[in-house]
Design brief:
Allantoate amidohydrolase, Alpha-Beta Plaits, alpha/beta, 23% strand, nine-stranded mixed β-sheet, globular, 15 strands, metal-binding, Aminopeptidase, 12 helices
């Protein structure tokens, strides 16, 4: 007999969890994340779902009721995490999708269209630096050459990481997506909108444009003790000023919704306590309500960084590693789903999702959000009450019944 939502959640809870801070380390194509995918395959088998894998780490389980035909309804999410992440970002959508199928069967629903539950790989970009890599490969928005050039922080090639886990990478569009007519992703909310509205479940209207940018600061290594302050060409100072500039520029946003600018990752060379650095590489995550505002924000940060570099005797080069445009979810699809329940607000999100990648690729897509009482995400403090999760399962089941009938 298939496990309940609570049983499935309890089974996943220990996988990849740190014993120190309680955060999750489910990096793509590594043991914990692959263990989660193996668990997913087992759960699909327990429900009699036909399992497909595209060789790139994406897995989908198909519920094909007798006589079901036509464009499929796809749901699901991802199973990987950011470094020291929370339990709900991604897995909640996968577990809820399996539970929703159970609920539809309990109701005696016989879908006339196939329903698929997808578990996408490397959504967070925590290992290979490109967010939603699995879904981007699936829709063909990342070329094989681009994928082959990807390396993790230890220099491991993407293809080698895949092969080491027994996968047979194809680095191309997935055949199974050709049968998909629409996609619906359930996700924990990564903010406080639903908390402030005192509502358990909402829908997404759009995803803000966002990007990841590498800032390479170069200077001159020197002795921390014998080098006078006036004689230094210290890239750490240039970086520090640029980080402050990013904070200021985001806070100066003219948009009512504001802007976001975050330097969250840093590499320093030679990374020695008693040496002036020779180089600092920092990664900026920037998000705005419009693409024009995003371009302006990044340009302003780069301009202030270059001005400071000129004063410090250092250099700065900026490279856009990943930029995603604004995504508007399918309005007709969202309207149909909103009509299925009361108090289902439609809200924008500044977080990226696989649903956004599929939407840009031309697959009508929508999202359900489940309330997060902490408002915190990408952190062990990320949370959702069981009652709200079960309300999300109900909402997802209602949506699948509507879309697959």
């Amino acid at each position: 007999m298939p496990e309940s939502f609570e049983q499935m959640w309890a089974a996943l809870a220990p996988v990849g969890r740190s014993g120190v801070g309680g955060g999750y380390f489910r990096q793509p194509f590594a043991s914990a994340e692959r263990e989660c995918h193996a668990w997913f395959v087992e759960q699909c088998a327990a429900r009699g779902l036909r399992v497909q894998s595209d060789g790139n780490g994406n897995t989908v389980g198909w519920w094909e009721h007798a006589g079901a035909s036509g464009p499929a309804v796809l749901t699901g999410s991802h199973l990987d995490s950011v470094l020291d992440g929370g339990a709900y970002d991604g897995p909640l959508g996968v577990v809820s999708a399996l539970a929703a199928i159970d609920l539809l069967r309990e109701r005696g629903i016989h879908p006339t269209r196939p329903i698929g539950v997808a578990a996408f790989a490397e959504e967070e970009g925590s290992r290979f630096g490109l967010a939603c890599l699995g879904s981007r490969l699936a829709v063909g928005s990342v070329s094989a050459d681009q994928a082959r050039a990807l390396r993790d922080r230890d220099g491991v090639r993407l293809e080698d990481a895949m092969s080491a886990q027994g996968l047979e990478p194809v680095l191309g569009r997935s055949d199974w997506l050709g049968d998909v007519g629409c996609y619906l992703e359930l996700h924990v909310e990564q903010g406080r909108d639903l908390v402030d509205r005192d509502v358990a479940v909402g829908l997404a209207s759009s995803i803000w444009p966002h990007g990841r940018y590498r800032f390479d600061f170069d200077g001159e290594a020197n002795h921390a003790g014998s080098t006078a302050m006036a004689d230094r060409h210290d890239p750490m100072l240039t970086f520090a000023m640029t980080a402050l500039a990013a904070n200021k520029q985001a806070r100066l946003s003219a948009s009512a919704a504001g802007a976001r600018a975050t330097f969250g990752r840093l590499d320093v060379g030679p990374n020695s306590t008693n040496a002036v650095p020779s180089s600092v590489t920092a990664w900026l995550d920037a998000r705005c309500e419009t693409e024009e505002e995003l371009a302006g924000l990044v340009a302003a940060i780069e301009r202030q960084g270059l001005d400071r570099a000129a004063r410090d005797g250092t250099t700065l080069a900026v490279t856009a590693e990943s930029v995603s445009p604004a995504v508007l979810f399918d309005t007709d699809l969202t309207r149909r789903l909103a009509a299925l329940g009361t108090d289902r607000p439609v809200i924008a999100t500044a977080a990226g999702h696989d649903a956004g990648v599929l939407a840009v690729a031309g697959i009508p897509s929508a999202m359900l959000f489940v309330r997060n009482p902490t408002g915190v995400s990408h952190s062990p403090a990320e949370f959702a009450e069981t009652a709200d999760c079960l309300a999300g399962v109900e909402a997802l089941a209602d949506a699948l019944a509507e879309l697959a009938s």
